[in-house]
Amino acid sequence: MKLCVVVLGAGFGGLELSSILSETIGDRLDLTLIDRNESFYFGFSKLDVMFGRAAPDSVKIAYRNIVKPGVQFRREMVIAIDPIAKRVTTATRTYEADVLVIALGADYDVDATPGLAEGGNEFYSFHGAERLREVIPAFTKGHAIVGVTSAPFKCPPAPSEAALLLHDYLVERGVRSACEISIVMPFGLPIPPSPDTSRALLEAFAERNINFIPKRLVRAIDPSRHVAILDDETEMPFDLFLGIPKHRVPDVVLASGMTENGWIPVNRANLETRFPQVYAIGDVTSVGTPKAGVFAEGAAKIAAASIIARLDGDEGSAPYSGAGSCYVEFGQHLVGRVDVDFFSGPKPTGSFTEPSEEIVRDKRYFGSSRKARWFGI
Ligand SMILES: Cc1cc2nc3c(=O)[nH]c(=O)nc-3n(C[C@H](O)[C@H](O)[C@H](O)COP(=O)(O)OP(=O)(O)OC[C@H]3O[C@@H](n4cnc5c(N)ncnc54)[C@H](O)[C@@H]3O)c2cc1C
Predict the structure, then answer these.
(1) 110, 137, 278, 283 — which has fewest CB within 10 A?
(2) How far, in Å, are 19, 80, 88, 111, 191 from residue 124 at the CA level?
(3) Does ligand 1 come within 6 angstroms of the Cβ of 16?
């Protein structure tokens, strides 16, 4: 009898977990990987798309490339999850699993910020980033705001990266001096676990005349007056608003009854939920790491090890350290890196590697190695 595993979501977490299980127990595996989309894209490619550095189709990797022992990809919309029966319903069929893995990521609730849909833009969805390709070129003077509307949000460096890349974009077009850039962030520092990365970002903002507004969220947009209203009622007029929308679990996860305080709680040792043999990994959880691909991937490794250990009747695996490296676009074609570790010590720690061309190459390898590992191309 093969182990029947159903993995919901073929993002960073789902792809990594499926790859490990296939590599390790492919001959004893009957794994179905389900996603509503026909292709994968890295989160960071949205920055390339919005600033016209890459064509939208060029960053998409089709799931039909997945050919792995014991793994079948299905493009279907998940519409119901029963974590007690380990049963999943999609728009076309029902699946019963021995082991169920929820890796459905975080969705966006644009309507949670009044006026954002009508008067602003967001660059966190692929569609939002694609739409901005038409909007950003029309911005040649005035005030641009990169604004976070709610926490937690994916990839904490991304708002800072967007502000720095916008600066470059405006410089290249010769209009930077006619434009002001502000960034509104809920934290006191751009990357709280890493004071060195934060210092480097604050220096980069100061050198480029980017206004950093800490400890604030954008509460609402007034589309008629082109004003962003912060959570302390400060009003900031803008000509271009690049928003980070409120994040939430997908509706199907909320309806499954698996969430507490908005996200799925998991056992940090093995990423299992309170439902036996039901795991949750990545952005959909409240495990305590930032919502980023590297952490979804790290969680996938631990959950996969636990699934394999149980199948073989072994003891559990090493606990999840919550460690990962994030690349940070500093503009001027340079990338830095922050290495963070959330669970090894009494509090999160982070170290910083200065932006360089070497790290540009590392980031490129990060993408190409995942593409090769997950898709064989
Ligand atoms: C602008 C930006 C820049 C980023 N840069 C980085 C970076 O440099 N490094 C980094 O590590 N992270 C980065 N991220 C974050 C990263 O993209 C996410 O944190 C990561 O993708 C989370 O992985 P996941 O597996 O939890 O979820 P996801 O990768 O989001 O995958 C979830 C999958 O579930 C599918 N799904 C959802 N609901 C359903 C349903 N009902 N039925 C079927 N399928 C469904 C989705 O289609 C999706 O493919 C960035 C994000 C953004 C927005």
Answers:
(1) 137
(2) 26, 25, 28, 14, 18
(3) no
CA of residue 227 to ligand 1 center, whole Å = 30
Residue environment code for 168-205, b if the CB has 16+ CB neighbours within 10 A, otherwise e = bbbeeeeebeebbbbbbbbeebbbbbbeebbebbbebb
Which atom from ligand 1 is nearest to the alpha carbon of 251?
A: 41
118 band by pLDDT with thresholds 50, 70 and 90: very high
Report the CATH number of the 110-247 domain.
Answer: 3.50.50.60
Residues 339, 341, 344: CA angle, nearest 5 degrees: 150
Q: Whose CA is nearest to atom 27 of ligand 1?
A: 105
| Peptide linkage before 152 cis (omega within 30 of 0) | yes
Q: Do domains 3-54+61-106+249-311 and 110-247 have the same CATH topology?
A: yes
pLDDT recorded at residue 195: 95
Q: Please enumerate in sequence order all residues whose Cβ is within 8 A of that of 164, keeping only pairs 6 or more positions apart, or say none.
A: 204, 205, 208, 210, 329, 330, 331
Architecture (CATH level 2) of domain 3-54+61-106+249-311:
3-Layer(bba) Sandwich (3.50)
294 CB less than 6 Å from ligand 1? yes
Please report the pLDDT score of residue 315 as a whole number: 78
In which band, very low, low, confident or very high, does the pLDDT at 305 lie, cut at 50, 70 and 90?
very high
Beta bridge partners, 267, equal none
User: Distance between alpha carbon 69 and the CA centroid of its chain, in Å?
Assistant: 28
User: Domain segments of the chain: what residues?
Assistant: 3-54+61-106+249-311, 110-247
**Cα end-to-end span (Å), the chain:** 31
| φ/ψ of residue 171, rounded to 5 | -60, -50
pTM: 0.97
- 292 Cα: distance to centroid of ligand 1 (angstroms): 8
183: nearest Cα among 158, 220, 200:
158
Query: Percent of the chain, pLDDT > 90?
Result: 97
